UniProtKB/TrEMBL annotation:
It comes from Cohnella silvisoli. InterPro entries: YmaF. This is YmaF family protein. Pfam families: YmaF (PF12788).
Length: 129
């Protein structure tokens, strides 16, 4: 099965020879794509918490979908944690658009190895095209 996809490729500018370009998809199977902002503060563990913020991966607009996400937490107590996962399904907003719920646990890091719980809801959809 072939799915028509449109987008563009840009040099990532990071000098990493393994991944020197980034692909930005603007439509998937004829549907424009969108992203969501997400942010929050982790649970307190080992005497501290971490902040995080980023954007979800793109997903098609107007069809049932979820989004992948990943980011690193703020640098606190000498370390960061990776946050990654998949959002829940879209939840419609009365004023139009939608959001997604997300939750999980960070990677285990730190001088005293530990993880943090996190949860939240994304912002409303934003066109990524």
């Amino acid at each position: 099965m072939k799915i028509p996809v449109t987008g563009f490729v840009m040099d990532s500018g990071d000098g990493n020879s393994d991944h020197s370009h980034k692909l930005y998809i603007t439509s998937w199977n004829g549907n424009p794509v969108h992203v969501h902002a997400f942010s929050g503060v982790t649970s307190i563990n080992d005497g501290h918490s971490h902040e995080y913020e980023s954007w979800t991966a793109s997903a098609p607009t107007g069809v049932p979908h979820v989004h992948e996400y990943h980011t690193f937490t703020s640098y606190d107590q000498g370390h960061t944690h990776l946050i990654q996962g998949t959002t829940g399904p879209a939840i419609d907003l009365p004023s139009g658009g939608h959001y997604h719920l997300f939750e999980g646990y960070t990677t285990i890091n730190g001088c005293h190895p530990h993880s943090h719980a996190y949860r939240g809801r994304t912002g409303n959809e934003v066109s990524s095209g």
